Amino acid sequence: MHLDFHTGPAVPDVARDFDPEQFARAFADAHVDSVTVFAKCHHGMLYYDTERPERHPGLPADLDLLAAQVDALHGVGIRAPIYLSVQVDEHAAGEHPEWMACDEDLRMTRWGGSAFTPGWHVLDMSSPYQDYFADQLDEVLRRFAPVDGIFLDMCWDQPSASKWAIDGMRRDGLDPAGPQDRVRYARSNALRYMERYREMVEKALPEDAVQGVWFNSRPKTNLHEESRLLRHVEIEALPTGGWGYAYLPYVARFVRPLGLPTLSHTGRFHESWGDNGALKPRAALLYECSQVLSHGLTNGVGDLLHPRGVPARATYELIGSAYEHIERCEPFLEDGSLVSEVAVVVDPELGDSPGPSGVGTVRALQQLRQQFDIVPPTADVSAYRVVLVPESTTVDSALSAGLGRAYEAGAAIVLVGDSLTGSDGGPGVPLPVEVAGPSAFTAAFLRREDVNTGGFDTVAHGRALRATPVPGAEVLARFVRPYFERTWDHFSGHSYTPPDALTDEAAVAVRDRVVAVTWPLLQAFAEHGNEAYRELLGAALARVLPDPLLRAGGPTHLETTVVRTPGSTVVHLLSFVPSRETATLDLVHDPFPLLDLPIAVRAQAPPARVHLEPEGVELEWTYDDGYVHTQVTVQGGHAMLVLDDSSTTQTGGLESR
Question: Please, what are the domains in the chain?
């Protein structure tokens, strides 16, 4: 549990009804084994025994709330890492407005509206506030060491034009007048204070600590650099809070290959954090917790504790219903690791938000039942069977060399859109096409050559590259050009110009384990959802990965991941359908049943047993041509297909990445 407690100084009766035994029992009954509790909130208020003036004025003088919470939780075997807000501190901002971050017009940085609307002020970590916070952190660490962990929130890169930031930029040899230099300084300044606070926390941890300090609000796609500061990772991913349901499957696949213990937390809120008067549907929380589990992550759920200090019964009945299911699943996943065959190479500078290309990639590969990781260009991808480079990733000389090494090691390479051209030459592998620059058309049409489409040509949204197949290449689809390019004074029809004539330009071509997709297919799939795009990508992948790890029928929305444990192979099956019910909100109300779903898992030998968990249903199965074939029915939205090895030597297991 992540137990928010942002309580303004105007609230008079903080922890009035707090009862340690009742507090701890609420979490224990809900199958919770760790609760992040508050030392300091966004209001800058402190909730422990301290002489500092920031102690919440509504907290009884004789109550050390944080100590009482920690002791109560420890008393029932529950961990209690401690939360402090960093760059958002209303008390410090009010006492020291000169410490606030400001933009180039010297306007104070704040979240929300004008000076006369509620909102959070943002502190400048170049200012003396950094020492102010260090004193608070030091007091907490001295008071509570050894700590179960420290959660430091609101730690993003904050550009600022304050006098403190300007002095810091000049010391670093940067130009304060340059927007990009202000961004660079924001990153380097953040990393410096993170290093400082990390050293403080490390001294307060037990020798066997797995969880250390977590800096929240950082870009997860920079973890390939920042992981050196961490013992564990936390992913904040509340779908209804602006993250959406595509966020976790993207970020989790980027974090997984780092090998650090990872916690992902959604929330019990109907909408976003702080929506303390509304609960999300039970099916939604079950879906989100099961999705976290299916990606090999630890579950976390966010709540906001009422100022009087009593956990709401309805909240923990809801959370307990999801966590009971997760707890029943865990024994089948002990010491397991996710198995992936496809590496998707993304540019970390694009940030955590996957963007159209990232969304299209995740949705297409999930719907095609592919098992994949997401990695930065610096990753060694030579152990994967397929490496896919989306159109949003620039292939520079270093990535080109990495793709070449992966290809020489036997991997197939799939290049989409602009990744075919590279920034410093070619992409490092022999292409099945010759590229001659961008197309003259912003929208052309696809004509499949590998299947009969009944003479229908499908629009291909997005400007393609002009590319002709080389000898020996198999062309899966060619472009049909429109009559002319659509302009304001020269157009036909509502949307795009109709198709005119077939060209010799390849839309998708394959040769010698290299696939060239010559237009932004993944972005187009995200923006238009045309299933013909996914089917074409699937046909291309089938050419270079004819024996995928998993084959499964059923509805398109089905999500699958594969886990390898010391004695079994486990396939997660998730079947929930979010629906858009407000202008900005996707909700899940019910699981979507899977009836007699055919599924096949590649394995080196027949298994000893095939069963569906956590229900404990024995399944009939056959073994043919290297695959275990079975059928499953899942009524509750999430289940695990478990294939037990036929011997303790694991020769019956699947091949891992």
Answer: 342-544 (3.40.50.880), 550-644 (2.60.40.1180)
